[in-house]
Amino acid sequence: MNILSKINQGMINMKVLGITEESLFRPEAVRWRNRMNLLEPLGDTIVILPCSMRKPYSSSSSHRSFMKYTKNFQELILTSPFGVCPRELEKTYPIQSYDVSTTGKWSYEEIEIVGEVLKDYVKDKTVIAHVTGGYREVCEKFLDECIYTAVDNKISSKESIFNLGKELRKQKKIKGKNKNLHRLRSIARYQFNSKKADILIPDKSESRGRFNQRIVYDGKTIATLLYEKGLYSLNIYGGKLLNEIDLNWVEIDFELNTNTLFCPGVVDADPNIIPNDEVVIIKKGEVLAVGKAVLSGDEMKKANKGVAVRIRHRVK
Fold this sequence. Notes:
Blueprint: H1 3-11, E1 16-17, H2 27-35, E2 45-50, H3 61-70, E3 74-79, E4 83-86, E5 98-99, H4 108-122, E6 126-129, H5 133-142, E7 147-148, H6 158-168, H7 176-192, E8 206-208, E9 213-217, E10 220-225, E11 232-234, H8 236-244, E12 249-252, E13 260-262, E14 266-269, E15 278-283, E16 286-293, H9 297-302, E17 307-314
Parallel strand pairs: 1-5, 2-3, 2-6, 6-7, 12-15
Antiparallel strand pairs: 3-4, 8-9, 9-10, 10-11, 12-14, 13-17, 15-16, 16-17
Helix pairs in contact: 3-6, 4-5
């Protein structure tokens, strides 16, 4: 296993530090920004908000005050080094566990990198920006039209919050049922790096559970959305759906009778797999198991020893 794989393997349990400007180029931050182009805003109006020291953002006092008015709209949090975070992804790793100072002052490079991601996400939507400082600089530079609601650079003042509510009362709200389906699909798109991942969340699927949420369709569990990481853990049915869209597959040519797949048993693997990805084990196109990758897809094929996948469920 190379150094990058060892780092990625341990990263899921670590705080992601964003203390210096170089953090803009951390693999987790770059990957996050690249995958934002897979997501689509829900509704006609986007509300842009600043990030907070507390994670998830909705646990902070400032965001709780905003959400009295913004919760029925597409909320988008501006943050460096990750760029943007739609509210529906705020509990998803790594955005839910990064640590960075929030001075409100942004460097030229931060403004440029975050601004490009923001512009691509917003497109032609109506934008209400409840921001000040560097956050507002980003909006002013990269968005053609924007309604600003903060007064005297104070986003949490009574007057600023009143302005935010006043503007939002003019906009059309999003229905709760549509918002939950959108949330679940957005997480799937981000995690599996494809719009095709919508297949994991069928139109009539249900999310059951307060913390770890099971995604159930037609009486079958597709996956569990884990509270701790905000990512999906696949069941066999979910693995079969993933196999249908040709994502995160690992091919073998023998009978699988253990819960560990070693590298010598791997015939081929999706080259886009990275450590900690959810993967599906297949043989001649048939799904045998699902689990978590220990190595990247290329490493699984090249290595002659070591663990490739830790298996969670097997077809028996």
